[in-house]
Amino acid sequence: MNESLDMTADASPAPAAAQNVNPNAPTAETVLEVEHYTDRLFRFRITRPRSFRFRTGEFVMIGLPKEDGRPLLRAYSIASPAWDEELEFYSIKVPDGPLTSRLCNIQPGDKVLLGKKPTGTLVLDALTPGKRLYMFSTGTGFAPFASLVRDPDTYERYEEVIVTHTCRENAELTYSQNLINDLVNDPLVGEMVQGKLRLYTTCTREDHPRMGRITTLIENGKLFEDLGVPPLDPACDRAMICGSMEMIQDTKNLMIAAGLTEGSNSAPAEFVIEKAFAG
Ligand SMILES: Cc1cc2nc3c(=O)[nH]c(=O)nc-3n(C[C@H](O)[C@H](O)[C@H](O)COP(=O)(O)OP(=O)(O)OC[C@H]3O[C@@H](n4cnc5c(N)ncnc54)[C@H](O)[C@@H]3O)c2cc1C
Ligand SMILES: NC(=O)c1ccc[n+]([C@@H]2O[C@H](COP(=O)([O-])OP(=O)(O)OC[C@H]3O[C@@H](n4cnc5c(N)ncnc54)[C@H](OP(=O)(O)O)[C@@H]3O)[C@@H](O)[C@H]2O)c1
After folding, report:
1. Residues 33 and 74 in one domain
2. Is residue 6 very low, low, confident or very high in pLDDT (cuts 50, 70, 90)?
3. What are the residues facing 226 on neighbouring strands?
4. pTM of this prediction exceeds 0.85
5. Of the bound ligands, which one is closest to the alpha carbon of residue 168?
6. What is the span of the domain harbouring residue 256?
7. Kindly report the CA angle at 171 between 165 and 174, in degrees rounded to 5?
8. What would the pLDDT profile of 41-61 be if each residue is shown by its tens digit?
9. How many CA atoms lie within 13 Å of 76's alpha carbon, on the beta-carbon side?
10. What is the pLDDT of residue 5?
11. Are residues 267 and 215 in the same domain?
12. What is the CATH number of the domain that holds 84?
């Protein structure tokens, strides 16, 4: 549960009644597209209200109405960039999860609730300028980076962009691999990504050309060797980290050991973190 965030909105009024009285109540958006990758992962797109503004890389509360009509909301990284007319999300399916056990059944035409207050630290403005941007992700932690790799601003600010995605199994890498492979054909960033953007995938529990946790590959230098880049350097490298609490803590420790300082919206610095799920 996301209790620590106090964002489950269980205490909010029912959306139907609330839309007239509560300007912060979620809006009901229409599902446009759904794609399933494994029995645990899927992505979907919904309509975006004209008034919904966010910064590429932020997260927002989304959900479904409960039986009593009140909203059941969870934090979700917006996987589409700020310029997109629709909103995309990349989701886990937790078999007994209050939200995702139902969300995994959505079909085009269904309604999904969308909160009104996007926020987050995985934004370009929370980093000081640099030469090379790393985005370290595990599991659904790739979602905010699906947004950032589709934003021209990312390539205007950095000479080189390296996205790492580590999962237990190969099939769990399908979303990141397809999305980044297809970017060369993107009318907006297609030319910008060429020679600038690289995806570095690794698996931990199934055979893959690159095996192991990203933390191990940073520590033993294999990541840098494979990419042909120098080790982390606070003078030119910037990093964003998104994964489980443990992954974030371990990766953060490696950033600090390399001399990078953690940043935030109010105090930009050399790396930023955000958990991909609570608990
Ligand atoms: C800032 C933030 C951003 C998030 N962005 C995303 C996102 O883009 N996509 C997404 O799928 N989830 C994301 N989450 C997690 C999301 O908020 C929910 O936890 C998730 O949708 C499951 O909801 P649930 O009600 O089914 O189960 P919950 O009761 O919320 O979770 C049950 C258990 O499932 C596990 N779990 C939950 N989410 C995940 C996950 N993403 N990956 C692996 N295990 C998980 C945890 O062990 C958790 O205790 C984010 C969470 C935070 C805090
Ligand atoms: N079919 C299923 O039912 C199924 C399948 C997978 C997961 N799950 C459950 O779902 C939950 C989330 O699983 P997930 O695979 O999405 O997320 P996860 O357990 O966080 O694993 C995602 C990737 O992150 C790596 N990782 C974990 N801790 C790390 C750390 N401290 N530093 C660096 N890398 C780290 C994992 O490597 P390691 O492999 O070395 O841990 C794995 O490759 C878990 O509770 C799990 O039990 C269920």
Report:
1. yes
2. very low
3. none
4. yes
5. 2
6. 124-273
7. 60
8. 999 999 999 999 999 999 999
9. 28
10. 35
11. yes
12. 2.40.30.10
Q: Which atom of ligand 1 is nearest to the CA of 72?
A: 25
What's the Cα-to-Cα distance from 106 to each of 10, 35, 66, 76, rounded to whole Å? 21, 10, 14, 16
In the 8-state DSSP scheme, what is residue 232? P
Ligand 2, residue 95: give the atom nearest the CA.
Answer: 3
Do the Cβ atoms of 163 and 200 come closer than 8 Å?
A: yes
Residue with tokens 């629709």: 86
- 257 shares its domain with 183: yes
Query: Do both 61 and 135 map to the same domain?
Result: no
204 CB near ligand 2 (under 6 Å): yes
Q: Rounded to 5 degrees, what are φ and ψ at 171? A: -60, -25
Of 3-12, 143-152, 185-194, which gets the smallest average pLDDT?
3-12
Ligand lying nearest the CA atom of residue 72: 1
Taking CA atoms only, the protein residue closest to ligand 2 atom 40 is: 204
The percentage of residues in the chain with a pLDDT greater than 90, rounded to a whole number, is 91
Write down the mean pLDDT value for the chain.
Answer: 93
Q: Which residues neighbour 227 within 8 Å (Cβ) at sequence distance 6 or greater? A: 162, 198, 200
Residue type (1 letter), 24: N
DSSP letter at 211 equals B
Distance 251 CA to ligand 2 centre (A): 15
171 C-beta neighbours (distance < 10 Å), count = 15
Quick check: is 222 in a domain?
yes
Are residues 94 and 10 part of one domain?
A: yes
> How many angstroms separate the alpha carbon of residue 141 from the centre of ligand 1?
10
**Nearest ligand atom owner, CA of 90:** 1
